[in-house]
Amino acid sequence: MSGRGGTALTAADTSPGSPPPEPSGRRKRGVSIGDVARLAGVSSQTVSRVSTGHPRVIASTRERVLAAMEELGYRPNNAARALRLGEFRTIGVVLFTLSTTGNSRTVEAIADHAAAEGYAITLIPVASPTQDDVLGAFTRLEELAVDGVIVIMEVHLLDAATVTLPPGVQVVVVDSDAGDRYAVVDSDQFDGARQAVRHLLELGHRTVWHVAGPTGSFAAERRTNAWRTTLQEAGRRVPPVERGDWSAESGYQAGLRLAEQDRCTAIFAANDQMALGVLRALHEHGRSVPGDVSVVGFDDIPDAGCFHPPLTTVRQDFAEVGRRCVERLLRQIRREAVEPGMALVPTRMVVRHSTARPRRGRQST
Predict the structure, then answer these.
(1) What is the distance between the alpha carbons of residues 92 and 125, in angstroms, rounded to a whole number?
(2) In what order do the strands lie in the sheet with 242-243?
(3) What does the pLDDT read at residue 159?
(4) Which UniProt keywords apply (predicted)?
(5) Shared domain check, 295 and 258
(6) Domain shared by 165 and 265, yes or no
(7) What pLDDT, on the 0 to 100 scale, is given for residue 146?
(8) Are 205 and 265 in contact (CB under 8 A)?
(9) Is the CA virtual torsion 137, 329, 167, 188 positive or negative?
(10) Is 69 inside a domain boundary?
């Protein structure tokens, strides 16, 4: 009779690769990580890496371990592992909104790099940027058991005297001016905007008009400051700021106003979605791009090269921002020294067909 269908055991049931049978009358013990390791012919450490999704396992070995887990009915006890090792292999991500390109792509990059290190992420959205909501998010993360937290707050919040993060929590912050208190990672917003304005000035435009992001946003503030500073340093007139909210619709509304400015031959939009709205407004008013008006965006979203015309823009390296966030947080989790301060990721111009030299006699003044 087969050992799988009755009480008798055959020689195959006691092969060296199988876990030893339990003595008669004794309660059967659970399958251990060692049982899986013996059946798969690997170390217990390799089984642990496979169970946590660690990427540094050879594919054939991973398949062998997974097959052994399936055959033995093994299920990793992550809660017990966390209690034993004092870690949960989970990173919390607190953020105000996922609707913006920068936030969504940063979260995607964080998830990718966390997974590469064998960590999962838990996402906690904050309804509004207030002290109570931020602390509420941290309370939820404590209940969900995370090893550290990445805070993505593009609005003025952490610099307010009344808003602080709970003490003792391992934290990295994205897009903030809180570098004197926390480890902060961000794209070099100021230099990216400076590159955009200089590109337009070097083409021969006398000044550059600006469609800014919303008030209260660090990214919008840095890009606007860079636009203004670069014009002032070049001795150029600083036009009035048009204000948007990152959406293409707000860019379209700003573009309608700018299309009526005959002197406007160059526009720097604070993100690509608003630049898309500007392009539509200019087209509807019969002003060609780049013949009459040059337009530069910011972000280099995947569709930027498919705009009409393909958009000149500033590229942010979201993958590198995510990598540095995870790297700095894991150093804190591992009790390595991480000093507060800002880590800036370089940006660069991507020149396409939405910018050109102004037509003679059409330079902005």
Answers:
(1) 10
(2) 242-243, 209-212, 266-269, 294-296
(3) 46
(4) DNA-binding, Transcription, Transcription regulation
(5) yes
(6) no
(7) 83
(8) yes
(9) negative
(10) yes
What does the DSSP 8-state code read for residue 299? Answer: B
| 91 shares its domain with 69 | no
Minimum mean pLDDT range among 43-57, 304-318, 332-346: 43-57
Q: Is the dihedral of CA 142, 144, 145, 146 positive or negative?
A: negative
Q: Do residue 97 and residue 215 come from a single domain? A: no
Any residues with CB less than 8 A from the CB of 88 and at least 6 apart, and which?
78, 82, 145, 146, 147
Q: What is the pLDDT of residues 141-177, one digit of tens each?
A: 766 678 889 988 766 554 444 455 666 678 898 877 6
The Cα–Cα gap between 47 and 32 comes to 10
Domain count, the chain: 3
User: Residue 212: its pLDDT value, please?
Assistant: 98
Report the SS3 class of residue 170. Answer: coil
Residues 160, 115 share a domain:
yes
Average pLDDT of the chain is 83
DSSP 129: S
CA distance 67 to 62: 9
Angle at 31 between CA 27 and CA 37, to 5 degrees: 145
State the residue range of the domain holding 193.
189-316
pLDDT for 161 equals 43
Distance of alpha carbon 314 from alpha carbon 199, whole angstroms = 11
The yes-or-no verdict on residue 2 having pLDDT over 70 is no
Q: Which of 159-173, 211-225, 329-343 has the lowest mean pLDDT?
A: 159-173
162 lies in some domain: yes
Give the Cα separation of 202 and 208 in Å (integer): 11
Tell me if residue 343 falls in helix, strand or coil: strand
Using the 8-state DSSP alphabet, how is residue 267 labeled?
E
CATH number at residue 156: 3.40.50.2300
Q: Cα separation of 16 and 18, whole Å?
A: 6
